[in-house]
Design goal:
This protein is an alpha/beta fold. The protein is built from ten helices and eleven strands. 43% of the residues lie in helices and 23% in strands. The strands form three sheets. Strands 3, 4, 5, 6, 9, 10 and 11 form a seven-stranded mixed beta sheet that branches. A two-stranded antiparallel ribbon has the order 1-2. The two termini are 66 Å apart.
Length: 296
């Protein structure tokens, strides 16, 4: 009786299946590359290991016993499973697996979104079975998720002061001061700085910018953290505020926004941030490689 199954047993089982499928010892010689006495000897070894006869051979020809029939089915199933395992194990060797969690700033420029899409397309050309999770959120929330190691990487503007993070510059986003249709400055001619200092401005918590940026008027009766909320307040015609130029472009083209003093523009640097303690797996490292290739 077989206890544990060893490699020699698998060789004997393969020989047994080959003999049966060939139709006997003599017929299997060419396929196995063994002489008939050697095949007979190894079949006897298998029967000894099992403790029962597998076949009879004589004047009536080669014939399986009832137990031999049962073993044949079991051996074929075993060898098939081993082959399937081998194929799957070899397939996993060069395949990226797991989950990649990417945080992104909201209201990205179309050009940036296209580059991100190209990075994803490039990544999907790899041998991979990876779940991609994309999360859009304000910078402060992305930073918190990174600190909690709930993201593998994030693209946004950050303070750059987190010792726990690695930062890689990607691109810059220009912000400009706007007012909406109906605001007293909308149809005014040249707007002086003193005028801007006296109008109500939406306060946006640009937490991660250097001192003095952006411009702030003396009045602020509205606060918003998300770009869409800032836009809504400006469109009311009662507040001025900063918007990314790419977000304001279509509203400006419709005559609903006016860009104010360009000398008060400022640039927001966007970076790719990763937690130093969160060693990237193969899938995460490959995605970052494809992402950085889109932002030379």
């Amino acid at each position: 009786m077989l206890g544990q199954l060893h490699d020699p047993d698998l060789h004997l089982l393969r020989l047994f299946v080959t003999v049966v499928e060939a139709g006997g010892f003599s017929a299997a010689q060419g396929e196995l590359g063994l002489s008939q006495p050697t095949i007979s000897q190894r079949m006897a070894q298998l029967e000894t290991r099992l403790g029962y006869r597998l076949c009879s051979r004589g004047k009536g020809g080669f014939r399986l016993t009832d137990k031999g029939e049962l073993l044949l089915d079991a051996a074929r199933g075993l060898l098939l499973n081993i082959e399937q395992f081998r194929q799957q194990a070899n397939g996993v060797a060069g395949r990226l697996l797991g989950t990649v969690r990417v945080g992104m700033a909201e209201n990205q420029d179309t050009a940036v979104s296209l580059k991100l899409a190209s990075a994803i397309a490039r990544f999907r050309q790899r041998e991979e079975s990876v779940q991609l999770e994309l999360i859009s959120a304000p910078p402060a929330q992305l930073e918190r998720l990174l600190l909690e190691q709930r993201l593998d990487c994030a693209i946004s503007y950050f303070s750059g002061n987190q010792a726990a993070f690695d930062y890689q510059p990607l691109f810059e986003e220009r912000q400009r001061l706007y007012c909406g249709k109906g605001h007293p400055l909308f149809n005014a001619g040249q707007v002086a700085l003193e005028q801007l200092l006296e109008v109500d401005q939406v306060r946006h918590p640009y937490r991660f910018l250097k001192g003095g940026e952006p411009f702030q008027s003396r009045r602020s009766m509205a606060v918003a953290e998300q770009i869409e909320s800032v836009l809504t307040l400006i469109l009311s015609g009662r507040h001025i505020g900063y918007l990314p130029c790419h977000c304001a472009a279509s509203w400006e083209a419709q005559g609903l926004l006016r860009a104010l003093e360009p000398g008060l523009d400022f640039v927001v640097p966007f970076t790719l941030a990763r937690h130093r303690a969160q060693g990237p797996g193969e899938a995460q490292a490959a995605f970052v490689e494809d992402l950085l290739a889109m932002f030379p």
